[in-house]
Design brief:
Blueprint (H helix, E strand, L loop, with lengths): L5 H16 L4 H35 L1
């Protein structure tokens, strides 16, 4: 989905976000989005690690 946006699409999205939220709220929204994405990646990584550890321990038994 995101691979089809391109530079003009990103500029349009950023312009609309700037109009809707204003320049003072954009850094706050960016930080919140970044921390949410970081937490999601960490949780996903933990789930994958747990699954691979349980498969390895099942094979050893």
């Amino acid at each position: 989905m995101l691979q089809n946006i391109g530079v003009p699409g990103l500029i349009l999205i950023l312009t609309i976000a700037l109009i809707i939220f204003g320049p003072s709220k954009l850094p706050e929204i960016g930080r919140a989005f970044g921390s949410t994405l970081r937490e999601f990646k960490k949780s996903t990584r933990d789930l994958v690690t747990d699954d691979s550890n349980s498969e390895t321990s099942d094979k050893k038994e």
